[in-house]
Structure formats: C-alpha cells, structure tokens
Amino acid sequence: MLRERVMKGRTGWSLLFMLIAAALAEIALLVAAIRAEHVPMLLTFLVTFPLTVLCFFGLTVVNPNQARVIQLFGEYKGTLKEQGFWWVNPLTLRRRVSLRVRNFESSKLKVNDHDGNPVEIAAVVVWRVVDTAEAVFHVDNYENFVHVQSEAAVRNLATSYPYDAHNDEVTSLRGQTAAVAEHLCKEIQDRLAKAGVEVIEARISHLAYAPEIAAAMLQRQQAGAIIAARQRIVEGAVGMVEMALERMSQKEILRLDEDRRATMVSNLLIVLCGERAAQPVINAGTLYQ
Fold first, then answer.
1. pLDDT tens sequence across 136-152
2. Closest by CA position to 138, among listed 71, 70, 196
3. Least confident of 73-77, 100-104, 230-234, 285-289
4. Is the four-CA dihedral 219, 221, 222, 227 of positive or negative sign?
5. Which of 132, 112, 131, 130 is nearest to 121 (CA)?
6. Three-state secondary-structure class, residue 270
7. 120: number of CA atoms within 13 Å, CB side?
8. What pLDDT digit, counting tens, does each position of 197-238 carry?
C-alpha cells in the first residue's frame, strides 16, 4: 500500500536562468562552428542543445492547495506540495491533484426506506484529498470513486431508517437529521478511506416520498400524527384527572360516591380531550339533580 511522501524540488528560478544562459552559449557555439566549419563543435552542439531543451521540461509550477505526484518510470518518487516555481527531473511524470475542499451533490435516488416505502433522497458531500498517493494509485479515478461510493452510502442510509416516526425513541430520516447526517458522514468516510479522501460533511439535501405514493403517505402521515397527538392528550388528561381527585381527597374538599366520581371523571375527560372549548352549564339545583 503506497503512502504519501512529501518531496522537495529545486528552485526553478535559478535553473531557469542557468538553462537560458546555456542555450544562448550553445547557439553561439553553433554560429562559431558554422563559420569555422568545425565539425567537433557542431557535434557538441547537437548533443548538448537537446539536453538543455529537455531540461526546460523539468520546470513546474505548484499553485496553492495543489500538489504534483511525481512518478519516474512507473515508480512513485513523492509528492510536491509546496507552492512555488520548481524544477524536477524532466523524465518524470507529474500528475496534478487538487487539495481544495470540494462538494458533490448526488442525484435524486429512489429507494425504499426501512418500512418499505419508496422515497426520493439526495445528499451533499463535502470532501478533499488528504493522501495524494492513495488517491492516484489506489483507485482508477478518485473523483468518480467519490461519486459512486457516496450514492451507494446514501442508498444504504435510506434503507436503515424509516422516513418518519412518531416515537421520539426511533431515529427517522426526517426527524433526527443530525444523527442521520453523522451516520452518513461516517459511512462515506469508511468507504473512501482507501482513496485518500477525507469527508468533511455529509447531509441530506432532498427527502420526499415517491410521487406515486406521496398523496397516500401524506394521509397516512396526517392520521399517524393525529393518533399520536390524541394519545398524548389522553395521557395528559388522565394524569390531570388523577391529580385532581387525589388533591380533593387529601384536602377533603368534597366526598363523592363511586357513581358521582365516575360522572366527574367522565366530565373532566370530555373537557380536557374535546376539540372545542367547553360550554359551562349552571346547575340551579343540587349536585344530584
């Protein structure tokens, strides 16, 4: 497994001036050889001038947040990461790799969630290259690798959670966005670790039911929300009635038999659980009339 090795290049400006001076001297040598018809000088020019021209191809520029992966005859020599104007062996192959932070938005994928409902989901992944050797040599095309593996992770994420859940203890795609984003980021990072890529952030950018079931699932969602709200209202109302009866019994405000207690509980539950405000009725007689 190749690991990144940072290498140093020679300063390009000094080599540039030396090569220009050498090229001018060789041109002057050529002119003198032609005038004097001196064959050895001409042969010297024919040997040295192509080498000088070849050395010009060793000059390279490294921009900020950019790296050059140096490879000589198939062997990895190192990575030039320091910005500036440098000279390296002109026979080397130099691959440019961007170290900038990049983002990728997946296409809208249609998958089934944990409950089997078809949903549309897409995600945004923020990433960057941290190991140039792994990015260049461990995968065929690291950018395409990021795209494919990110979409695969999004598909797996959608099947791991339901679209929505009314129970707070159940993690859902729509309800617990922070936990889902953390899971997605970790899974993408595990898939891209071999490519020398660091995932900075991953979040769901689009989430919806598939169009063919959107209307039906909306009704189901509304019904589930109503049931969940009614359940909570009833639980709260029962607690309030229980507390009221207990307080009345402790302070001996009113003594009721079982029938009157049942009637009072029924009235309290109707008032607390009803959708409309209670309409008070004044009893002009006694409690038992």
1. 999 889 999 999 999 99
2. 196
3. 285-289
4. positive
5. 112
6. helix
7. 11
8. 999 999 998 888 877 765 666 666 676 676 677 777 777 777
Give the chain's end-to-end CA distance (angstroms, integer): 91
Nearest to residue 130, comparing CAs of 193, 75, 180, 68? 193
Q: Where along the chain do its domains lie?
A: 10-97, 102-209, 214-273
Taking the C-alpha atoms of residue 100 and residue 96, their distance in angstroms, rounded to an integer, is: 12
List for the chain the helix, strand, coil content (%; round to 5).
50, 20, 30
pTM: 0.68
CATH 3.40.50.300 fits 102-209, yes or no: no
Which has the higher per-residue pLDDT, 186 or 30? Answer: 186
How far apart, in whole angstroms, are the C-alpha atoms of residue 29 and residue 22?
10
Spatial distance between the Cα atoms of 95 and 209, rounded to a whole number of angstroms = 44
Average pLDDT, rounded, for the chain = 82
Neighbours of 87 (CB within 10 A): 21
DSSP H or E run through 158: helix 142-160
